[in-house]
Write a structure and sequence with these properties.
The complex is a heterodimer of chains A (about 200) and B (about 425). With about 200 residues, chain A is an alpha+beta fold. Chain A has three helices and nine strands. The radius of gyration of chain A is 26 Å and the shape is elongated. Classes of the chains: A alpha+beta (about 200), B mainly alpha (about 425). Chains A and B meet through loops of A and helix 7 and helix 8 of B.
Chain lengths: ~200, ~425
Protein backbone atom coordinates (compact mmCIF):
# COMPACT_ATOMS: atom_id res chain seq x y z
CA UNK A 1 0.00 0.00 0.00
CA UNK A 2 1.55 3.28 -1.03
CA UNK A 3 1.91 5.59 1.93
CA UNK A 4 3.31 8.68 0.20
CA UNK A 5 1.40 11.83 0.89
CA UNK A 6 -0.94 10.14 3.37
CA UNK A 7 -2.39 12.48 5.91
CA UNK A 8 -2.40 10.16 8.92
CA UNK A 9 -4.17 12.63 11.14
CA UNK A 10 -7.05 12.97 8.71
CA UNK A 11 -7.20 9.20 8.20
CA UNK A 12 -7.41 8.60 11.97
CA UNK A 13 -10.06 11.31 12.28
CA UNK A 14 -12.16 9.76 9.51
CA UNK A 15 -11.84 6.26 10.98
CA UNK A 16 -12.80 7.52 14.44
CA UNK A 17 -15.76 9.65 13.31
CA UNK A 18 -17.06 6.89 11.00
CA UNK A 19 -16.87 4.39 13.89
CA UNK A 20 -18.65 6.72 16.29
CA UNK A 21 -21.42 7.62 13.84
CA UNK A 22 -21.79 3.94 12.94
CA UNK A 23 -22.03 2.92 16.58
CA UNK A 24 -24.67 5.58 17.27
CA UNK A 25 -26.62 4.32 14.24
CA UNK A 26 -26.46 0.74 15.48
CA UNK A 27 -27.62 1.91 18.91
CA UNK A 28 -30.65 3.69 17.47
CA UNK A 29 -31.44 0.81 15.13
CA UNK A 30 -31.43 -1.56 18.12
CA UNK A 31 -34.17 0.38 19.90
CA UNK A 32 -37.14 -0.88 17.82
CA UNK A 33 -35.98 -4.47 18.22
CA UNK A 34 -35.59 -4.17 21.98
CA UNK A 35 -38.87 -2.27 22.36
CA UNK A 36 -40.70 -4.88 20.28
CA UNK A 37 -40.31 -7.24 23.25
CA UNK A 38 -42.37 -5.03 25.54
CA UNK A 39 -46.07 -5.82 26.12
CA UNK A 40 -47.97 -4.93 22.94
CA UNK A 41 -50.94 -2.56 22.76
CA UNK A 42 -53.23 -5.61 22.77
CA UNK A 43 -51.55 -7.07 25.87
CA UNK A 44 -51.90 -3.70 27.57
CA UNK A 45 -55.61 -3.50 26.66
CA UNK A 46 -56.22 -7.01 28.01
CA UNK A 47 -54.50 -5.89 31.21
CA UNK A 48 -57.30 -3.40 31.96
CA UNK A 49 -58.91 -3.21 35.49
CA UNK A 50 -61.32 -5.94 36.66
CA UNK A 51 -64.54 -5.33 38.60
CA UNK A 52 -65.66 -7.89 41.22
CA UNK A 53 -68.72 -8.06 43.49
CA UNK A 54 -67.60 -9.45 46.84
CA UNK A 55 -70.80 -9.11 48.90
CA UNK A 56 -71.77 -12.76 48.45
CA UNK A 57 -68.60 -14.19 50.05
CA UNK A 58 -68.90 -16.29 53.21
CA UNK A 59 -66.30 -15.97 55.99
CA UNK A 60 -63.07 -17.82 55.08
CA UNK A 61 -64.23 -18.07 51.48
CA UNK A 62 -61.65 -17.26 48.83
CA UNK A 63 -62.64 -15.92 45.43
CA UNK A 64 -60.00 -16.10 42.70
CA UNK A 65 -60.13 -13.78 39.70
CA UNK A 66 -57.71 -13.09 36.87
CA UNK A 67 -56.11 -9.73 36.39
CA UNK A 68 -53.25 -9.33 33.94
CA UNK A 69 -52.84 -13.08 34.00
CA UNK A 70 -52.18 -12.94 37.71
CA UNK A 71 -54.44 -14.79 40.08
CA UNK A 72 -55.94 -12.31 42.53
CA UNK A 73 -57.58 -13.74 45.62
CA UNK A 74 -60.33 -11.99 47.56
CA UNK A 75 -60.70 -13.46 51.03
CA UNK A 76 -63.47 -12.57 53.43
CA UNK A 77 -62.11 -12.65 56.97
CA UNK A 78 -64.15 -13.20 60.13
CA UNK A 79 -63.76 -11.20 63.35
CA UNK A 80 -61.96 -14.18 64.95
CA UNK A 81 -59.46 -14.32 62.10
CA UNK A 82 -58.75 -10.61 62.41
CA UNK A 83 -58.32 -10.95 66.16
CA UNK A 84 -55.65 -13.64 65.70
CA UNK A 85 -53.56 -11.56 63.26
CA UNK A 86 -51.52 -9.56 65.83
CA UNK A 87 -50.59 -12.81 67.61
CA UNK A 88 -48.67 -13.94 64.51
CA UNK A 89 -46.36 -10.91 64.52
CA UNK A 90 -43.44 -12.49 66.38
CA UNK A 91 -43.34 -15.42 63.91
CA UNK A 92 -43.38 -13.21 60.80
CA UNK A 93 -40.48 -11.96 58.74
CA UNK A 94 -42.04 -8.62 57.83
CA UNK A 95 -45.10 -8.09 60.11
CA UNK A 96 -45.32 -4.36 59.35
CA UNK A 97 -44.92 -4.82 55.58
CA UNK A 98 -41.84 -2.59 55.47
CA UNK A 99 -40.03 -4.58 52.77
CA UNK A 100 -43.06 -5.91 50.94
CA UNK A 101 -44.85 -4.78 47.83
CA UNK A 102 -48.26 -3.16 48.39
CA UNK A 103 -50.02 0.16 47.82
CA UNK A 104 -49.59 2.58 50.76
CA UNK A 105 -53.18 2.04 51.94
CA UNK A 106 -52.35 -1.63 52.70
CA UNK A 107 -49.37 -0.94 54.95
CA UNK A 108 -51.31 -1.95 58.04
CA UNK A 109 -51.87 -5.00 60.24
CA UNK A 110 -54.61 -6.42 58.01
CA UNK A 111 -53.02 -5.28 54.74
CA UNK A 112 -56.25 -4.08 53.18
CA UNK A 113 -58.48 -1.08 52.56
CA UNK A 114 -61.30 -2.69 54.54
CA UNK A 115 -60.42 -5.19 57.28
CA UNK A 116 -63.13 -7.57 56.16
CA UNK A 117 -61.71 -8.28 52.70
CA UNK A 118 -58.16 -9.22 51.86
CA UNK A 119 -57.43 -8.52 48.19
CA UNK A 120 -54.15 -10.22 47.47
CA UNK A 121 -51.97 -11.30 44.58
CA UNK A 122 -51.97 -15.06 45.06
CA UNK A 123 -48.56 -15.70 43.47
CA UNK A 124 -45.97 -16.76 46.03
CA UNK A 125 -43.20 -14.18 46.28
CA UNK A 126 -40.66 -16.99 46.10
CA UNK A 127 -41.17 -18.37 42.60
CA UNK A 128 -44.70 -17.50 41.58
CA UNK A 129 -46.68 -20.59 42.54
CA UNK A 130 -50.20 -20.33 43.97
CA UNK A 131 -50.37 -21.02 47.73
CA UNK A 132 -53.41 -22.87 49.03
CA UNK A 133 -55.80 -21.31 51.55
CA UNK A 134 -55.78 -23.32 54.78
CA UNK A 135 -58.14 -21.31 57.02
CA UNK A 136 -58.66 -23.91 59.79
CA UNK A 137 -57.12 -22.90 63.15
CA UNK A 138 -55.25 -25.75 64.83
CA UNK A 139 -52.11 -27.93 64.58
CA UNK A 140 -50.88 -28.71 61.07
CA UNK A 141 -48.01 -30.99 59.92
CA UNK A 142 -45.97 -27.87 59.10
CA UNK A 143 -47.01 -25.74 62.09
CA UNK A 144 -48.26 -26.87 65.50
CA UNK A 145 -49.80 -23.50 66.27
CA UNK A 146 -51.46 -22.67 62.96
CA UNK A 147 -53.75 -19.63 62.98
CA UNK A 148 -54.97 -20.20 59.44
CA UNK A 149 -53.30 -18.82 56.36
CA UNK A 150 -51.78 -19.74 53.01
CA UNK A 151 -49.44 -22.66 52.35
CA UNK A 152 -47.41 -22.90 49.14
CA UNK A 153 -47.18 -26.46 47.77
CA UNK A 154 -44.05 -25.71 45.75
CA UNK A 155 -41.47 -24.87 48.37
CA UNK A 156 -43.51 -24.83 51.55
CA UNK A 157 -43.68 -21.09 52.14
CA UNK A 158 -46.33 -20.02 54.66
CA UNK A 159 -48.32 -16.81 54.96
CA UNK A 160 -50.90 -15.70 57.53
CA UNK A 161 -54.47 -14.58 56.84
CA UNK A 162 -53.14 -11.15 55.87
CA UNK A 163 -50.69 -12.66 53.35
CA UNK A 164 -47.72 -11.95 55.62
CA UNK A 165 -44.80 -14.35 55.27
CA UNK A 166 -43.56 -16.52 58.14
CA UNK A 167 -39.92 -16.71 59.16
CA UNK A 168 -37.76 -19.59 57.91
CA UNK A 169 -39.47 -20.17 54.56
CA UNK A 170 -38.08 -19.49 51.06
CA UNK A 171 -40.47 -16.63 50.20
CA UNK A 172 -38.63 -13.36 50.89
CA UNK A 173 -41.58 -11.00 51.35
CA UNK A 174 -45.30 -10.88 52.08
CA UNK A 175 -47.75 -11.72 49.32
CA UNK A 176 -48.16 -8.70 47.09
CA UNK A 177 -51.26 -6.54 47.27
CA UNK A 178 -52.41 -5.32 43.85
CA UNK A 179 -53.69 -1.78 43.32
CA UNK A 180 -57.47 -1.80 43.94
CA UNK A 181 -60.28 0.36 45.19
CA UNK A 182 -63.97 0.11 46.07
CA UNK A 183 -66.34 1.61 43.52
CA UNK A 184 -69.37 0.63 45.62
CA UNK A 185 -69.79 -0.67 49.16
CA UNK A 186 -69.08 -4.30 48.18
CA UNK A 187 -67.63 -3.97 44.70
CA UNK A 188 -63.89 -3.99 44.14
CA UNK A 189 -62.09 -2.60 41.11
CA UNK A 190 -58.77 -4.42 40.75
CA UNK A 191 -56.05 -2.51 38.95
CA UNK A 192 -56.89 1.04 40.11
CA UNK A 193 -55.88 2.64 43.41
CA UNK A 194 -58.42 4.76 45.32
CA UNK A 195 -58.47 8.38 44.19
CA UNK A 196 -56.13 10.52 46.22
CA UNK A 197 -54.23 7.49 47.47
CA UNK A 198 -51.49 6.93 44.93
CA UNK B 1 -2.72 -43.67 -11.25
CA UNK B 2 -2.16 -46.48 -13.73
CA UNK B 3 -4.01 -46.82 -17.01
CA UNK B 4 -7.26 -44.95 -16.57
CA UNK B 5 -10.08 -47.40 -16.00
CA UNK B 6 -12.21 -45.56 -18.45
CA UNK B 7 -12.74 -42.26 -20.08
CA UNK B 8 -15.51 -41.71 -17.57
CA UNK B 9 -13.13 -41.92 -14.58
CA UNK B 10 -10.87 -39.44 -16.32
CA UNK B 11 -13.73 -37.07 -16.81
CA UNK B 12 -14.67 -37.41 -13.15
CA UNK B 13 -11.10 -36.58 -12.16
CA UNK B 14 -11.16 -33.50 -14.34
CA UNK B 15 -14.45 -32.41 -12.88
CA UNK B 16 -13.09 -32.79 -9.34
CA UNK B 17 -10.00 -30.81 -10.26
CA UNK B 18 -12.17 -28.10 -11.72
CA UNK B 19 -13.95 -27.79 -8.36
CA UNK B 20 -10.77 -28.13 -6.33
CA UNK B 21 -9.21 -25.19 -8.17
CA UNK B 22 -12.18 -23.05 -7.21
CA UNK B 23 -13.06 -24.43 -3.78
CA UNK B 24 -10.19 -25.85 -1.67
CA UNK B 25 -11.90 -29.18 -0.99
CA UNK B 26 -8.84 -31.42 -0.89
CA UNK B 27 -6.72 -28.87 0.98
CA UNK B 28 -9.43 -28.61 3.62
CA UNK B 29 -9.79 -32.39 3.84
CA UNK B 30 -6.03 -32.78 4.25
CA UNK B 31 -5.70 -30.01 6.82
CA UNK B 32 -8.50 -31.22 9.05
CA UNK B 33 -8.59 -34.96 8.41
CA UNK B 34 -5.80 -36.93 6.67
CA UNK B 35 -3.03 -34.48 7.53
CA UNK B 36 -4.28 -33.74 11.03
CA UNK B 37 -2.39 -35.91 13.50
CA UNK B 38 -4.13 -36.80 16.73
CA UNK B 39 -2.58 -38.57 19.74
CA UNK B 40 -2.67 -42.33 19.31
CA UNK B 41 -3.97 -43.10 22.81
CA UNK B 42 -7.57 -41.81 22.79
CA UNK B 43 -9.85 -43.85 25.02
CA UNK B 44 -13.59 -44.09 25.75
CA UNK B 45 -13.83 -40.47 26.92
CA UNK B 46 -12.85 -39.22 23.47
CA UNK B 47 -16.07 -40.44 21.85
CA UNK B 48 -18.24 -37.75 23.45
CA UNK B 49 -17.31 -34.80 21.21
CA UNK B 50 -18.09 -36.47 17.91
CA UNK B 51 -21.24 -38.01 19.38
CA UNK B 52 -22.41 -34.60 20.59
CA UNK B 53 -21.92 -33.35 17.03
CA UNK B 54 -24.05 -36.24 15.78
CA UNK B 55 -26.81 -35.40 18.26
CA UNK B 56 -26.64 -31.73 17.23
CA UNK B 57 -27.28 -32.70 13.62
CA UNK B 58 -30.09 -35.01 14.72
CA UNK B 59 -31.70 -32.24 16.80
CA UNK B 60 -31.59 -29.85 13.85
CA UNK B 61 -33.09 -32.34 11.41
CA UNK B 62 -35.84 -33.58 13.75
CA UNK B 63 -36.47 -30.00 14.87
CA UNK B 64 -37.04 -28.82 11.31
CA UNK B 65 -39.60 -31.57 10.79
CA UNK B 66 -41.33 -30.80 14.08
CA UNK B 67 -41.83 -27.16 13.11
CA UNK B 68 -43.80 -28.36 10.08
CA UNK B 69 -46.67 -29.43 12.35
CA UNK B 70 -46.14 -27.52 15.56
CA UNK B 71 -48.18 -24.34 16.23
CA UNK B 72 -46.44 -21.78 18.44
CA UNK B 73 -49.57 -20.34 20.02
CA UNK B 74 -50.86 -20.74 23.56
CA UNK B 75 -54.22 -21.93 22.25
CA UNK B 76 -52.85 -24.57 19.89
CA UNK B 77 -49.39 -25.61 21.05
CA UNK B 78 -50.35 -28.46 23.37
CA UNK B 79 -52.85 -29.90 20.92
CA UNK B 80 -50.42 -29.63 18.01
CA UNK B 81 -47.82 -31.67 19.92
CA UNK B 82 -50.44 -34.35 20.60
CA UNK B 83 -51.37 -34.16 16.92
CA UNK B 84 -47.75 -34.84 16.03
CA UNK B 85 -47.68 -37.74 18.47
CA UNK B 86 -50.91 -39.37 17.30
CA UNK B 87 -51.90 -38.31 13.81
CA UNK B 88 -48.80 -37.29 11.89
CA UNK B 89 -47.17 -40.23 10.10
CA UNK B 90 -44.11 -41.18 12.15
CA UNK B 91 -44.58 -37.96 14.10
CA UNK B 92 -44.15 -39.82 17.39
CA UNK B 93 -40.74 -41.04 16.31
CA UNK B 94 -39.51 -37.64 15.22
CA UNK B 95 -40.77 -36.01 18.41
CA UNK B 96 -39.30 -38.70 20.65
CA UNK B 97 -35.99 -38.49 18.78
CA UNK B 98 -35.96 -34.76 19.52
CA UNK B 99 -36.93 -35.05 23.20
CA UNK B 100 -34.66 -38.03 23.89
CA UNK B 101 -31.92 -36.33 21.87
CA UNK B 102 -32.08 -33.31 24.17
CA UNK B 103 -31.36 -35.40 27.25
CA UNK B 104 -28.62 -37.36 25.49
CA UNK B 105 -27.06 -34.10 24.35
CA UNK B 106 -26.62 -33.16 28.00
CA UNK B 107 -25.39 -36.63 29.00
CA UNK B 108 -22.70 -36.37 26.31
CA UNK B 109 -21.80 -32.79 27.15
CA UNK B 110 -21.45 -33.60 30.87
CA UNK B 111 -19.20 -36.58 30.11
CA UNK B 112 -17.25 -34.45 27.62
CA UNK B 113 -16.67 -31.78 30.26
CA UNK B 114 -15.75 -34.35 32.90
CA UNK B 115 -13.11 -35.72 30.50
CA UNK B 116 -11.54 -32.28 30.66
CA UNK B 117 -11.26 -32.50 34.43
CA UNK B 118 -9.66 -35.92 34.17
CA UNK B 119 -7.00 -35.09 31.62
CA UNK B 120 -6.62 -31.32 32.00
CA UNK B 121 -7.86 -30.59 28.47
CA UNK B 122 -8.80 -27.06 29.54
CA UNK B 123 -5.21 -26.18 30.43
CA UNK B 124 -2.78 -24.13 28.36
CA UNK B 125 -2.83 -23.89 25.34
CA UNK B 126 -6.49 -24.94 25.16
CA UNK B 127 -8.09 -22.31 27.42
CA UNK B 128 -10.13 -20.72 24.63
CA UNK B 129 -11.24 -24.13 23.44
CA UNK B 130 -12.66 -24.67 26.92
CA UNK B 131 -14.24 -21.19 27.03
CA UNK B 132 -16.01 -21.84 23.72
CA UNK B 133 -17.13 -25.14 25.18
CA UNK B 134 -18.68 -23.44 28.20
CA UNK B 135 -20.38 -20.93 25.88
CA UNK B 136 -21.82 -23.86 23.93
CA UNK B 137 -23.02 -25.34 27.22
CA UNK B 138 -24.70 -22.05 28.24
CA UNK B 139 -26.39 -21.69 24.86
CA UNK B 140 -27.50 -25.28 25.07
CA UNK B 141 -29.10 -24.62 28.45
CA UNK B 142 -31.06 -21.67 27.05
CA UNK B 143 -32.00 -23.72 23.99
CA UNK B 144 -33.18 -26.65 26.11
CA UNK B 145 -35.13 -24.43 28.49
CA UNK B 146 -37.01 -22.69 25.68
CA UNK B 147 -37.59 -25.97 23.89
CA UNK B 148 -39.15 -27.38 27.03
CA UNK B 149 -41.65 -24.50 27.13
CA UNK B 150 -42.95 -25.20 23.61
CA UNK B 151 -45.23 -28.23 24.34
CA UNK B 152 -47.10 -25.83 26.67
CA UNK B 153 -47.78 -28.42 29.34
CA UNK B 154 -48.02 -27.69 33.04
CA UNK B 155 -44.31 -28.14 33.62
CA UNK B 156 -43.51 -26.04 30.54
CA UNK B 157 -45.57 -23.22 31.94
CA UNK B 158 -44.59 -23.34 35.58
CA UNK B 159 -40.97 -24.14 34.82
CA UNK B 160 -40.88 -21.00 32.66
CA UNK B 161 -42.55 -19.09 35.50
CA UNK B 162 -39.84 -20.12 37.94
CA UNK B 163 -36.94 -19.46 35.57
CA UNK B 164 -38.19 -16.07 34.32
CA UNK B 165 -38.93 -14.97 37.88
CA UNK B 166 -35.28 -15.62 38.74
CA UNK B 167 -34.56 -12.41 36.82
CA UNK B 168 -37.11 -10.65 39.02
CA UNK B 169 -34.74 -11.10 41.96
CA UNK B 170 -32.40 -8.47 40.51
CA UNK B 171 -32.94 -5.27 42.53
CA UNK B 172 -34.86 -2.41 40.88
CA UNK B 173 -34.65 -3.60 37.22
CA UNK B 174 -35.99 -7.07 38.05
CA UNK B 175 -39.70 -6.46 37.49
CA UNK B 176 -39.48 -4.51 34.22
CA UNK B 177 -36.93 -7.06 33.00
CA UNK B 178 -39.28 -10.01 33.53
CA UNK B 179 -42.04 -8.06 31.81
CA UNK B 180 -39.72 -7.45 28.87
CA UNK B 181 -38.76 -11.12 28.65
CA UNK B 182 -42.40 -12.25 28.78
CA UNK B 183 -43.78 -9.49 26.54
CA UNK B 184 -46.83 -9.47 28.78
CA UNK B 185 -47.76 -9.20 32.45
CA UNK B 186 -47.68 -12.97 32.69
CA UNK B 187 -46.38 -15.91 30.71
CA UNK B 188 -48.63 -15.89 27.69
CA UNK B 189 -48.94 -16.41 23.99
CA UNK B 190 -46.40 -13.63 23.41
CA UNK B 191 -43.85 -15.44 25.56
CA UNK B 192 -44.40 -18.78 23.84
CA UNK B 193 -44.16 -17.21 20.41
CA UNK B 194 -40.84 -15.49 21.06
CA UNK B 195 -39.38 -18.57 22.75
CA UNK B 196 -40.29 -20.49 19.63
CA UNK B 197 -38.41 -17.96 17.47
CA UNK B 198 -35.37 -18.14 19.72
CA UNK B 199 -35.48 -21.93 19.95
CA UNK B 200 -35.77 -22.70 16.26
CA UNK B 201 -33.59 -20.03 14.69
CA UNK B 202 -31.69 -17.59 16.92
CA UNK B 203 -30.06 -19.97 19.39
CA UNK B 204 -29.33 -22.75 16.86
CA UNK B 205 -27.45 -20.17 14.74
CA UNK B 206 -25.45 -19.09 17.79
CA UNK B 207 -24.84 -22.73 18.67
CA UNK B 208 -23.55 -23.58 15.21
CA UNK B 209 -21.23 -20.57 15.24
CA UNK B 210 -19.84 -21.53 18.63
CA UNK B 211 -19.38 -25.18 17.60
CA UNK B 212 -17.43 -23.97 14.57
CA UNK B 213 -15.20 -21.85 16.81
CA UNK B 214 -14.77 -24.80 19.16
CA UNK B 215 -13.63 -27.02 16.28
CA UNK B 216 -11.33 -24.39 14.75
CA UNK B 217 -9.71 -23.86 18.16
CA UNK B 218 -9.39 -27.64 18.54
CA UNK B 219 -7.66 -28.07 15.19
CA UNK B 220 -5.25 -25.22 16.00
CA UNK B 221 -3.60 -26.89 18.98
CA UNK B 222 -4.83 -30.43 18.48
CA UNK B 223 -6.52 -32.66 20.98
CA UNK B 224 -5.13 -33.24 24.42
CA UNK B 225 -4.90 -36.92 25.44
CA UNK B 226 -5.21 -39.16 28.50
CA UNK B 227 -1.51 -38.67 29.29
CA UNK B 228 -1.73 -34.89 28.97
CA UNK B 229 1.47 -34.82 26.90
CA UNK B 230 1.88 -32.41 23.97
CA UNK B 231 2.60 -34.74 21.07
CA UNK B 232 3.69 -31.83 18.87
CA UNK B 233 6.76 -31.45 21.08
CA UNK B 234 8.14 -34.70 19.69
CA UNK B 235 8.07 -34.76 15.90
CA UNK B 236 9.58 -37.40 13.61
CA UNK B 237 11.64 -36.83 10.44
CA UNK B 238 8.48 -36.55 8.36
CA UNK B 239 7.43 -33.53 10.44
CA UNK B 240 4.52 -35.37 12.03
CA UNK B 241 4.30 -36.09 15.76
CA UNK B 242 5.76 -39.54 16.45
CA UNK B 243 2.88 -40.29 18.83
CA UNK B 244 0.25 -39.05 16.41
CA UNK B 245 -1.86 -40.84 13.84
CA UNK B 246 -3.88 -39.24 11.04
CA UNK B 247 -7.40 -38.42 12.16
CA UNK B 248 -8.67 -40.01 8.98
CA UNK B 249 -8.86 -42.97 8.67
CA UNK B 250 -7.90 -43.95 12.22
CA UNK B 251 -10.21 -41.86 14.32
CA UNK B 252 -13.03 -41.61 11.82
CA UNK B 253 -13.21 -45.41 11.99
CA UNK B 254 -13.01 -45.38 15.78
CA UNK B 255 -15.77 -42.75 15.93
CA UNK B 256 -17.97 -44.80 13.62
CA UNK B 257 -17.69 -47.64 16.12
CA UNK B 258 -18.65 -45.18 18.87
CA UNK B 259 -21.60 -43.99 16.81
CA UNK B 260 -22.83 -47.57 16.40
CA UNK B 261 -22.66 -48.27 20.12
CA UNK B 262 -24.28 -44.94 20.93
CA UNK B 263 -27.13 -45.46 18.49
CA UNK B 264 -27.76 -48.88 20.00
CA UNK B 265 -28.29 -47.36 23.44
CA UNK B 266 -30.11 -44.35 22.05
CA UNK B 267 -32.54 -46.48 20.04
CA UNK B 268 -33.26 -48.66 23.06
CA UNK B 269 -34.26 -45.64 25.15
CA UNK B 270 -36.09 -44.06 22.22
CA UNK B 271 -38.27 -47.10 21.58
CA UNK B 272 -38.75 -48.59 25.02
CA UNK B 273 -38.32 -45.79 27.57
CA UNK B 274 -38.65 -42.37 25.87
CA UNK B 275 -40.02 -40.64 28.96
CA UNK B 276 -37.38 -42.26 31.15
CA UNK B 277 -39.85 -42.58 34.00
CA UNK B 278 -40.49 -38.84 34.07
CA UNK B 279 -36.84 -37.83 33.80
CA UNK B 280 -36.76 -36.90 30.10
CA UNK B 281 -40.45 -35.94 29.80
CA UNK B 282 -42.08 -35.10 33.10
CA UNK B 283 -45.51 -36.49 33.96
CA UNK B 284 -46.97 -33.05 34.63
CA UNK B 285 -46.14 -32.00 31.10
CA UNK B 286 -48.82 -34.29 29.74
CA UNK B 287 -51.37 -31.89 31.26
CA UNK B 288 -52.09 -28.67 29.28
CA UNK B 289 -50.68 -25.46 30.78
CA UNK B 290 -53.02 -23.87 33.29
CA UNK B 291 -52.04 -20.52 34.82
CA UNK B 292 -54.53 -21.04 37.67
CA UNK B 293 -53.26 -24.36 38.96
CA UNK B 294 -49.74 -24.92 40.19
CA UNK B 295 -48.45 -28.50 39.93
CA UNK B 296 -47.90 -30.17 43.28
CA UNK B 297 -44.14 -30.37 42.82
CA UNK B 298 -42.32 -28.12 40.37
CA UNK B 299 -38.91 -29.29 39.23
CA UNK B 300 -36.83 -28.67 36.13
CA UNK B 301 -35.70 -31.45 33.77
CA UNK B 302 -32.84 -33.55 35.16
CA UNK B 303 -30.01 -31.68 33.45
CA UNK B 304 -30.81 -28.46 35.34
CA UNK B 305 -31.45 -29.99 38.75
CA UNK B 306 -27.90 -29.62 40.15
CA UNK B 307 -28.17 -25.85 39.74
CA UNK B 308 -31.77 -25.84 40.94
CA UNK B 309 -30.60 -27.56 44.12
CA UNK B 310 -28.02 -24.80 44.66
CA UNK B 311 -30.80 -22.23 44.19
CA UNK B 312 -33.01 -23.99 46.71
CA UNK B 313 -30.20 -24.49 49.21
CA UNK B 314 -30.04 -20.74 49.87
CA UNK B 315 -32.86 -19.30 52.01
CA UNK B 316 -32.52 -15.83 50.45
CA UNK B 317 -33.94 -15.42 46.92
CA UNK B 318 -31.41 -12.96 45.55
CA UNK B 319 -28.47 -14.76 47.13
CA UNK B 320 -29.78 -18.05 45.76
CA UNK B 321 -29.92 -16.65 42.25
CA UNK B 322 -26.44 -15.16 42.59
CA UNK B 323 -24.97 -18.41 43.89
CA UNK B 324 -26.65 -20.40 41.13
CA UNK B 325 -25.26 -17.98 38.55
CA UNK B 326 -21.80 -18.30 40.07
CA UNK B 327 -21.98 -22.08 39.97
CA UNK B 328 -22.22 -21.95 36.17
CA UNK B 329 -20.01 -18.91 35.56
CA UNK B 330 -17.15 -20.32 37.59
CA UNK B 331 -16.68 -22.92 34.85
CA UNK B 332 -15.29 -20.19 32.59
CA UNK B 333 -12.39 -19.68 34.98
CA UNK B 334 -11.41 -23.32 35.33
CA UNK B 335 -8.32 -23.04 33.07
CA UNK B 336 -6.93 -20.34 35.36
CA UNK B 337 -8.09 -21.86 38.63
CA UNK B 338 -6.20 -25.05 37.81
CA UNK B 339 -2.57 -23.99 38.24
CA UNK B 340 -1.02 -27.45 38.31
CA UNK B 341 2.05 -27.94 36.07
CA UNK B 342 0.66 -31.37 35.14
CA UNK B 343 -2.43 -31.90 32.98
CA UNK B 344 -3.54 -35.49 33.35
CA UNK B 345 -4.97 -36.98 36.53
CA UNK B 346 -2.62 -39.90 35.86
CA UNK B 347 0.37 -37.82 36.91
CA UNK B 348 -1.22 -35.79 39.67
CA UNK B 349 -1.24 -36.83 43.30
CA UNK B 350 -4.02 -38.29 45.36
CA UNK B 351 -5.21 -34.77 46.26
CA UNK B 352 -6.53 -34.21 42.74
CA UNK B 353 -8.18 -37.61 42.51
CA UNK B 354 -10.06 -36.90 45.75
CA UNK B 355 -11.08 -33.41 44.57
CA UNK B 356 -12.42 -34.64 41.24
CA UNK B 357 -14.19 -37.57 42.89
CA UNK B 358 -15.87 -35.33 45.48
CA UNK B 359 -16.87 -32.85 42.78
CA UNK B 360 -18.49 -35.57 40.70
CA UNK B 361 -20.38 -36.92 43.72
CA UNK B 362 -21.50 -33.38 44.65
CA UNK B 363 -22.80 -32.74 41.12
CA UNK B 364 -24.71 -36.03 41.00
CA UNK B 365 -26.13 -35.68 44.51
CA UNK B 366 -27.18 -32.08 43.84
CA UNK B 367 -28.89 -33.31 40.70
CA UNK B 368 -30.82 -35.90 42.68
CA UNK B 369 -31.69 -33.48 45.49
CA UNK B 370 -32.83 -30.87 42.96
CA UNK B 371 -35.61 -33.27 41.92
CA UNK B 372 -36.62 -34.12 45.48
CA UNK B 373 -39.49 -32.56 47.41
CA UNK B 374 -37.24 -30.58 49.74
CA UNK B 375 -37.55 -31.90 53.28
CA UNK B 376 -35.47 -30.11 55.94
CA UNK B 377 -32.93 -32.99 55.92
CA UNK B 378 -32.63 -32.70 52.14
CA UNK B 379 -32.13 -28.95 52.42
CA UNK B 380 -29.22 -29.48 54.79
CA UNK B 381 -27.72 -32.06 52.45
CA UNK B 382 -28.12 -29.63 49.53
CA UNK B 383 -26.17 -27.02 51.49
CA UNK B 384 -23.37 -29.49 52.18
CA UNK B 385 -23.00 -30.49 48.54
CA UNK B 386 -23.28 -26.88 47.40
CA UNK B 387 -20.35 -26.20 49.69
CA UNK B 388 -18.44 -29.15 48.23
CA UNK B 389 -19.21 -27.94 44.69
CA UNK B 390 -17.62 -24.55 45.31
CA UNK B 391 -14.89 -25.97 47.53
CA UNK B 392 -13.64 -27.93 44.52
CA UNK B 393 -12.79 -24.75 42.61
CA UNK B 394 -11.33 -22.94 45.61
CA UNK B 395 -9.21 -25.88 46.76
CA UNK B 396 -8.09 -26.47 43.18
CA UNK B 397 -6.80 -22.91 43.03
CA UNK B 398 -4.83 -23.20 46.25
CA UNK B 399 -3.68 -26.82 46.04
CA UNK B 400 -2.82 -27.06 42.34
CA UNK B 401 0.46 -25.06 42.25
CA UNK B 402 2.11 -27.08 45.03
CA UNK B 403 0.11 -30.29 44.86
CA UNK B 404 2.11 -33.48 44.56
CA UNK B 405 2.68 -34.70 41.02
CA UNK B 406 4.43 -37.66 39.43
CA UNK B 407 7.02 -37.34 36.66
CA UNK B 408 5.38 -37.05 33.26
CA UNK B 409 6.95 -39.26 30.54
CA UNK B 410 8.08 -37.78 27.22
CA UNK B 411 6.13 -40.25 25.14
CA UNK B 412 2.58 -41.54 25.33
CA UNK B 413 2.47 -44.60 27.55
CA UNK B 414 0.03 -46.63 25.57
Amino acid sequence: MPTDGVNNGRRRFLVATTSVVGAVGVGFAAVPFIKSWEPSARAQAVGAPVQVYVGALEPNQLLKVQWRGQTIGILRRSEETLALLPENDSHLRDPDSLESDQPPFAENEWRALKEKYLVVNMHCTHLGCIPQLMPQVGPQPFDENWHGGFFCPCHKSRFDMAGRVYKGVPAPTNLRIPPYSYIEQETVLIGVNPEGAA
Amino acid sequence: MAKPASALAKRADELFNWFDKRLPVSAFWKATMTGYYAPKNFNFWYYMGSLALLVLVMQIVTGIFLTMNYKPSAAEAFASVEYIMRDVEWGWLIRYMHSTGASFFFILVYLHMFRSLLYGSHKKPRELLWVFGVLIYLTLMAEAFMGYVLPWGQMSYWGAQVIINLFGAIPSIGEPLTEWIRGDYFISDATLNRFFALHVIALPLVLLGLVLMHLVALRENGSNNPDGIEIKANKGEDGHPVDGIPFHPYYTVKDIFGVSMFLLIFAFILFFWPEAGGLFLEHDNFVPANPLVTPEHIKPVWYFTPYYAILKAVPDKLMGVILMGCSVMILFFLPWLDRSPVKSIRYRGMWYKILVFMFAIAFIRLGMLGMAAGTPAETIEMRIWTFVYFAFFILLFFLSPGGKTKPVPDRLTH
